[in-house]
Fold this sequence. Notes:
Chain A is an alpha/beta fold.
Amino acid sequence: LIQFENISKVYQMGLELVHALRDITLSIRKNEYVSIMGPSGSGKSTLMNIIGCLDTPSTGKYFFKQYDVSDMSDNELADIRNKEIGFVFQTFNLLPRATALKNVELPLVYSGVNSSKRKEIAQQLLEGVGLGDRITHKPNELSGGQRQRVAVARALANNPSIILADEPTGNLDSKTGKEIMILFNKLWEKGNTIILVTHEEEIAHYSHRIIRLRDGLVESDEKNGNP
Amino acid sequence: LIQFENISKVYQMGLELVHALRDITLSIRKNEYVSIMGPSGSGKSTLMNIIGCLDTPSTGKYFFKQYDVSDMSDNELADIRNKEIGFVFQTFNLLPRATALKNVELPLVYSGVNSSKRKEIAQQLLEGVGLGDRITHKPNELSGGQRQRVAVARALANNPSIILADEPTGNLDSKTGKEIMILFNKLWEKGNTIILVTHEEEIAHYSHRIIRLRDGLVESDEKNGNP
Ligand SMILES: Nc1ncnc2c1ncn2[C@@H]1O[C@H](COP(=O)(O)OP(=O)(O)OP(=O)(O)O)[C@@H](O)[C@H]1O
Ligand SMILES: Nc1ncnc2c1ncn2[C@@H]1O[C@H](COP(=O)(O)OP(=O)(O)OP(=O)(O)O)[C@@H](O)[C@H]1O
Ligand SMILES: [Mg+2]
Ligand SMILES: [Mg+2]
């Protein structure tokens, strides 16, 4: 499903080069449940952004369902991002002037779902993350963990087959965090592919494979014996 | 040092009332090391914002060093916020167009420190959180955990005697998170007062007292036997 061959990502800062990813080769199959761990700054979000077609590598090849992503048009990439992939961002990226409901509706607007159906789907998703009584709140009228949960609900709006979640429980107490992980488990059981970035071992243990990054490289890539 | 008497905070949303804090009475003495825990949405950040003089309660009294905060002028409050309290925000609140260095310098600009001294202090603080090689990066050129650490460094710029940190390790791997906690420990040993919000029990166990909120009320307030 997802294949990286010698992927690197380098930023130029004046005279200095920052190697966010150095040389990543890995593949992820359909319906896998993978966690990505590693120190702060090791390249996890950069990796997720490339997988999610939000960023392009500096060198190397990315094959999505066996198609070379670098050959795809902007429209094809936009379609993948909107319909196939649900992305929970590490910093949420909610529209500040829209309500929780409108924020979750946004991917459904892009995929052409009619207004009353959109509201119904968005309402259900927000109830599913415990925010049924917060749908009219804007992001600055929500707690940090509530914003995080709106970001999770929005990622699921188009029923994507691949869920990319960058630290989805970082702002949640353990009980609320578990509720989100139970939700992801159910999505995985339905055949979806889940890729999580987390720095909490307890959260990584819901997954079946743990990839650890260090300094832009894969340090280890192992099955998780007891999910 | 900090005394709350029957503090409440209520938001009006159309016809609905949201009780972020319902009735909080507590006191925190100088050089205490307190953690505040509780479910997502239970009122932790709201409590911190009132302590930090960034928000006012709807009812109740807040005494800061025995002065009634509601009687203070805007200038007096600004002085407290700038010189006495260092605040690490749950969502960092960095200036997006300024470098890490300039972001950390900002409180020193307000307190009138000269330019070369500011740079030196800001540089040292960033090295102290492991970001010596990232001082010229802007927030969007930093990882989530790096932005969080810039927010920590900025909170310490004016050498405040009270540190309020709202989930300071939420985006950090455990090793980097421990480095921040060691830093806070050192600050506490120097006589400062530390108030942390966290949802991780391991982090709360660095403190000496754990206050747990639920639904805008104090559910429990206990000494931590083994910090
Ligand atoms: N401006 C506002 N208008 C309306 N409701 C608000 C506003 N700000 C916060 N709230 C509500 O007040 C409650 C408490 O929010 P607060 O941010 O203090 O929670 P928290 O304990 O910090 O949660 P988290 O762990 O998720 O960060 C939440 O239910 C939130 O929806
Ligand atoms: N636009 C950019 N310009 C320069 N350097 C960048 C840029 N974006 C990221 N970096 C650097 O690339 C490295 C990897 O960043 P990335 O966000 O992938 O880390 P991460 O593993 O997600 O970290 P965290 O756990 O803190 O979120 C970091 O050292 C960061 O400073
Ligand atoms: Mg990241
Ligand atoms: Mg909060």
